Amino acid sequence: MALPALVVPTTRIGKAVLICAFSSACVAFLLSPSIRGSRPDDEIPPGAGPSPVAHDAHDADTLRAAQPDAASSASTLYNDAPSGRSPAAGTPATPPGPFARSVTIDSSFAEAMRRLGVDASVTALVAHSFAGQIDFRRDLRKGDTVSLVMPPAHAVDPASNAQATDDIPLAVRVSHGDTDHDLFPHRDLRGKPFYYTAKGRSGAPAFARYPLAFTRVSSNFAARRLDPVTHRWQSHDGVDFAAPVGTPVHATARGTISYIGWETGYGKFIVIDNVPPYQTAFAHLSRFAHGLHRGAHVRRGQVIGYVGKTGWATGPHLHYEVRVAEVARNPLTVTLPGDTPLRGTDRQRFAQRANRLAALF
Fold first, then answer.
1. Is residue 188 within 8 Å of residue 202, measured between CB atoms?
2. Where in the chain is the domain with CATH 2.70.70.10?
3. What is the rounded CA–CA span in Å between residue 313 and residue 318?
4. Distance between start and end Cα atoms, the chain
5. Contact (CB, 8 A) for 300 and 338
6. How far apart, in Å, are the Cα atoms of 115 and each of 17, 170, 203, 231, 351?
7. CA-based, 20 to 30 A from 103: which of 88, 247, 310, 351?
8. 2.60.120.560, 3.40.50.2300, 3.10.450.350, 3.30.70.2200: which CATH number matches 99-204?
C-alpha cells in the first residue's frame, strides 16, 4: 500500500505541531510490550514478579494447610496396611493430621464414647481390647477421662447430631485415677483391626494354659470316667494336675472371684469370672492366699491358693476347670483369648507410630 505523502509545513506553528506528534508516537512505541520483551501479567514466570507481602485470611489458611509440619503428618501416623482408598483428582486436601479429643466420664465408658462421636461397634471393639487391663463396670469412676486420637476424616462435632464415620480411633487413652491406659490399633493382612499396647502386646485379655508348676497330669478331662472316690461313672469336668502340697496356684487370667469357700467334693474351692464368657475353677486347695474374698479382683499370674487334697481327693493335686458360657471345656485344648505380640520390624514400626500418637494426647 502506498504511503501518504509527507507534507512539510512551512510555518513555525506547523513545525511545532509536527514535532509534538512525532514525539508522542515514539514514546508510545518505545513503551509497548512487544518492544520491552515482557509478557502480560498472567504469563510472568514464578519469582519474576514482586514478592507477595500480604495475603488475605483465606490465602494464609490455604498456605498453612498446604505445609503441615512433620509432627502432624497423617501419613506417618496411620497403620502400614493399605486402606484401598486414594484421594480423587480435584478433591480438597484433607486437614494436616490426626487430632485429639477428650471427655470426662459421667455415667459409663459407652456414654463417653458416644459423646466423642464413636459408634457402638467400634466402642465394643475398644472395650473388649481394654478388658485385659480395666473392668469398665467396676473400675471406672465419674471424673475419669477418655481421650481419642482420630483421623482427620473423622472431624465430627460431638455436640452435633452429625453421624460418625466408621474410622476407628488411632489411639485410645483411659485415665483412671493417676494411671493412663493407652492402646493403639494395628491391622492384620486382611485389614481387621486389633488394639495393642505401645510395646506391641495385645490389649485383649490373655489366658495362661497352666495354673501351676505340676509334676504330671493325673487325670484328664473326660465325658465319662469311673470316679476313684465314689466308684461311679460320671463326667470329669476338668484336669487334675499332681503336685506337692503347698505348691502355689496362680490365676490363669484377670478376673473377679465369684466364689471362695468349701464345696462338697471340691473341698476348698475358688471360682473366677474372667472375660465373658470364660470362667475358671480351682479345687482341692489346702488354703487360700491371704486377702482374697468374693468380689476381689485378681490379675493373671497372681497366687490365689496352694495345692492340697481337701474334699474328695485321693492325693495332693489341683483340679482345674475352664467353663465357656457355663459349659465345661477341656483346659488343655480349649481355645483361649490370645496374647500374640507383634514381632520384628512390625513391632518396631508400630512402636514408633504409637509414640508419635501418644504425644498428641
1. no
2. 216-329
3. 10
4. 83
5. no
6. 85, 17, 23, 61, 29
7. 351
8. 3.10.450.350
Residue 222: all three cell numbers together: 473326660
Helix (H) or strand (E) holding 57: helix 57-66
* C-alpha cell belonging to residue 126: 475398644
CA-CA distances (angstroms) from residue 244 to 62, 91, 105, 214, 249? Answer: 74, 71, 48, 8, 11
Instruction: Calculate the CA 311 to chain-centre distance.
Output: 47
CA distance 214 to 91: 64
Say yes or no to pLDDT of 66 above 70. no
Partner residues linked to 255 by β-bridges: 298
Q: Which three cell numbers stand for residue 11?
A: 510555518
Q: How far apart are CA 342 and CA 128, in angstroms?
A: 19
Higher pLDDT, 21 or 312: 312
Residue intervals in the chain for CATH 3.10.450.350: 99-204
Q: For residue 273, what are the CA distances in angstroms to 101, 256, 351?
A: 34, 5, 32
Q: Lowest-pLDDT range, 61-75, 80-94, 199-213, 301-315?
A: 61-75
Joined grid coordinates for residue 114: 458416644
Please name the helix (run of DSSP H) or strand (run of DSSP E) that holds residue 352, with its range, or none. Answer: helix 344-358
Whether pTM exceeds 0.85: no
Measure Cα distances from 156 to 118, 150, 326 in Å. Answer: 10, 10, 42
Report the SS3 class of residue 171: strand
Superfamily of the domain at 216-329: Glucose Permease (Domain IIA) (2.70.70.10)
Q: Does residue 94 register a pLDDT over 60? A: no
Which among 169, 110, 175, 103 is positioned nearest to 139, based on CA atoms? Answer: 175
Taking a C-beta distance cutoff of 8 angstroms, is the pair 227, 234 a contact? yes
